[in-house]
Amino acid sequence: MSIIIAGERSGVGKTTVTLTLLASLRRRDRLVQSFKVGPDYIDPMFHQHVTGRPCRNLDPVLTSETYVQQCFARHSQLTEYALVEGVMGLFDGVGHGEEKQKSTDFASTAHIARLLDLPVVLVIDCSRLSGSVAAIAHGYQSIDPRIKIAGVVLNRVGSDRHLSLLKDALKPLQLKIIGVLRRQDNITIPDRHLGLVPTVELPELNALIDRLADLGDTCFDWQNLLPLLKSQPFPPPPNPPHSPFSIRIAVARDRAFNFYYQDNLDLLQQLGAELVFWSPLEAAAIPKDVQGMYFGGGFPEVFAQQLAENTNVRNGVKTAILEGMPAIAECGGLMYLCEQIIDFEGKSWAMTGVLPTSAVMGGRLTLGYRRAVALQDNLLVKAGTTVHGHEFHRSHLTLTPTKPLFETSRYDCDENMGCEGWGFPANVHASYVHLHWGQSREIPEQFLKECRTYA
What we know:
The protein has 455 residues and is α/β, with parallel strands linked by helices. It folds into two domains: 3-229, Rossmann fold (3-Layer(aba) Sandwich), CATH 3.40.50; 247-454, Class I glutamine amidotransferase (GATase) domain (Rossmann fold). The chain has helices at residues 14-27, 42-51, 65-76, 109-116, 133-142, 160-170, 205-219, 222-229, 262-270, 304-309, 311-322, 332-336, 442-454, and strands at 3-7, 32-37, 56-58, 81-89, 94-96, 103-106, 120-125, 149-157, 177-182, 191-192, 195-196, 247-252, 257-259, 273-278, 292-295, 297-298, 327-330, 340-342, 348-350, 358-374, 386-397, 406-410, 416-420, 428-431, 434-435. The strands form six sheets. A seven-stranded parallel beta sheet has the order 3-2-4-1-7-8-9, sandwiched between helices. Strands 18, 19, 20, 21, 22, 23 and 25 form a seven-stranded mixed beta sheet that branches. Helix 1 runs parallel beside helix 2 (42-51) and helix 1 crosses helix 7 (205-219). The chain is globular. It starts with a strand and ends with a helix. The model has no long low-confidence stretch (mean pLDDT 93).
């Protein structure tokens, strides 16, 4: 069957509930495949840390509805159990379609539940309500008859008396209470300006996961929950064949750079790339015998001093790119290719200097899906090509390119968001727009073609 963990709004504890379930399942030696609705990078890191398996993003904006179904089918068949963590509130999505028939919950958790025909377990934050819980649950239960609410998880319950009031209120709805989580003072995942702190920066994470597993062993109704978590028995689409390795790609992966969609990495390997993971923070030099570089997003601003002090690597990256090595740099990777990063305190740190601009941290958050039209032939796409991506950053550049890669607009309307992205040198694709290649296999194909030409 499999289930989706949804929230009645953001901040109700979906991730905590999801990790508690995953931790308890893994303690029982159950193989479980997790998924995350939306473009999130950090929540999937926590999923993978617990399950030992890469979490897969389900996002019909960045890919397509068909791809979401195929991705879920392919990967859920590999394990006994499957679990999907939703995004924001159950029905929170983006506009999509013609104005008269416009859907407002496209790419929402509810949309994914309908696409995959999965029941929903609704997480409700009970910290500031008692009897009103019934109105909330009834509203979510009845607003869309296509959505099956399998039960609720009552989170942040304060006392036995509080729980009794909640149960009495919900009794007329005949909704199963799948779990009850009391207010927890010893289970906190730290966050900062772009969400949760990534797993690689949390030395106490294993102890936290153990506490979550302890909680999960006692707070869920496992008799009703386990049958819901069973993977669906439909046949998955065939896995694409792997080509023989012919190209080596240096993929920056450490505390500064760790925002990657696993599907993107898989596609590179399927197309014949050997991925060489390395650390611009720790390495003495760039990897040898590579024909391309991939810098994902992350938090280079947090580790700007250490990146700046690794002069040998900074110079090596610049030399390789100026000599023609193809390089993809998304968001944090773009910042690393700048002349400098100016952090939140106004301190300036030298970066690689490939791009004649600086990245300045600020309080303004740039967030949202983007429709991006290529303004010129570039490393990844031809002029006129439209791609869909996602922006999520608190920095801006001091200088914009004279010949930008993309003209961008909001995905859900025609509001112009300006031009952005660096394609100079021509072997560079540096952009704030994160791309998922699942529905655009031609993007990694074009990248590897350029890498082979360079080789």
